[in-house]
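User: Fold this one for me? It's Disease resistance protein (CC-NBS-LRR).
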Amino acid sequence: MAMILDAFLGNFKEMLTKMAEEEVGMLFGVPGEIEKLQTTVVYIQGLLSDAEKKQTTESIKNWLLELTDVMYDADDIMDLCQIKAEERSERRGSFDLYSSKFGCGISMLSCLRNPIFAHEMGTKIKKLNSRLNEIYKRKSELTLNESRDVFEPSNVRPMISPSVAPVDIVGDKIEEDAAMLLKLLTSDEESVKENVSVVAIVGMPGIGKSALAKKIFYDPEIEREFPLKIWACVSKDLKEIKLLQCIIRGAKGDYGAAEERSELVQKLTSVIQNNKFLLVLDDVWPDSQDVWNGLLREAMIGGARGSRVLVTTRDDDVARFFQPTTTHHVHKLSEKDAWSILAKQVALIESDSETLKDIGLELVKKCDGLPLAIIAIGGVLRERGKDILKWRKISESPLWSLYRRVQENLRMRADYRALMASLISVTPIASDRSAT
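Assistant: Here's what I get for Disease resistance protein (CC-NBS-LRR).
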């Protein structure tokens, strides 16, 4: 896991460097926060090697799990900026869907033209900085020492970011899944009584839920079928007012100076009325699961028949809460598709494959079929070059044992949530009489 986290942190540091170069912090209204984040990320990278040596302690495992959660939140921030940049560039007719995040010359500044969005991102950056700083400060109580001997993270300039444009996730399975979901989203289901129906995509962290949703979101068939396309990252720290404003903007509406829930719901109702839309609610957590039934449904149920809501979540219980007509589970990649992604990330040609495929397949297996992990490692390998000895050194690193342990812990956490939900649903509530 430390290797994957090192790659994630390196990718995030690359994004921060671009932000600093364009003085994005000033536009966010948080001058100096980007530079602080850069410094903290470098310091935390230096602790990962020592964390491997001390992985037997529960406190170290929990520290790594907490760091993993924060990096997923950082990924959400980059996702949101990417979506905004793509929407702006798409309107100008200049966006290349076959580019990675903020690739092909797309400026970070292009997602910050709206001052409200810039302020929202500034708040998220500041909160992220605070969380990472707290994680770093715990190094003393955990007796973690800084070292850069294993992967030399300070010398690695990642070529990709952890969240990628849809094309970076390749293979037969994602094509099949996308085709199936496209057909489902664009067909008129006679059995559905309401104008708006929900489809859910469920899978563990890093499995490619958002990548699949993006692939669908930018498909030409979706462009033709839905006059309104709206993408909203929900995540853990849901702010209802901000979400409503985001969706109104995405639906090409104007909420003016409205900041009250009732006003915004009314404006959203007006914008959506009789229009056919696709709304993607990306990365919905248990704390935010009532976002549809408790907040958005009232305003959006007046959309034209055939309108769809596409939800991505890591939690089956969250998906059920939306009462979807269909729930699609994203599974781990096959060896063939996983190798295709790695080969694409490292830009291998046929002659390279002859010498590097065996060791590449070893690395793919260690990534456990998770696209996000494969892409992150692909960035590290690409920087190392097509050198079989360097690839073997990475494959033989003891840090992979920690990755397996943390992945198991993540699965156990998900199983625990499901178990607790089941227990709550079947455990009778004691009456006052039985309690006396």
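One thing worth pointing out: The chain is about 60% helix and 10% strand.
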